[in-house]
Amino acid sequence: MNGTIYVINPNRSEAVTADIDAAVAPLRIVGARPIACLSLADGPPGIESQRDVDSVIGPLLRRAAMLEESAAAFVIACFSDPGIFSLREQSMRPVLGIAECGVLTALTLGQRFGVIAILQESIPRHLRYFGAMGVLDRLAADLPIDLGVAELANKECTLARMTKVGRTLRDTHRADVLVMGCAGMTLFRDPLERALGVPVVEPTQAAVTMAIGRAQLGWAVRPLQRARR
Fold first, then answer.
1. β 71-76/35-39 pair status
2. Has residue 14 got a pLDDT over 80?
3. b vs e for 114-136, b when ≥16 Cβ sit within 10 Å of the residue's Cβ?
4. Domain boundary assignment for the chain
């Protein structure tokens, strides 16, 4: 198979990238396109504000441009999907964002989805995006665990808070499927699903799954974009 699916973590945390790499390991099928998970060296240690989101767009586009010829698809592994529309304009490859793909996957698993965010400050950014996607009527709630990206390394504390918030989303807000609202949460899908008994979407897995399908079906070059060039 030609071309690599590049999963770009727009922050510079190698620990987060390693967790993302482990999460997508089940999708590495013999004979399929390789999946490479990369950190953005010019990115912040974590993406926690709109300013952080905006700051990584330029470096992300430059990194993707360097990878364009060897790429089968790009996945932006941040729940704010920074630069997704700019990269779609720039690249001839499929470009998937984990927030968009995570939510779309959740809509196939339940009627009302809940989002587990890292910080309260993340939620207005999420809601703007969900509004643009037209899915607010299916959103049960978006609630924070009040931990920054670096603090997610405390796995026991993180899982406990995610479980508590997930239970509130399920029982109080009637969410029947949950989406993890940060790429740094990748390792917690299985234990969270076991604890709560509802489907839990790990959005990077959702996005890479879609990227594999897009590349496999030959949707790597969009006719309209090709015609413009």
1. unpaired
2. yes
3. bbbbbbeebbebbeebbeeeebe
4. 4-97+205-228, 100-202
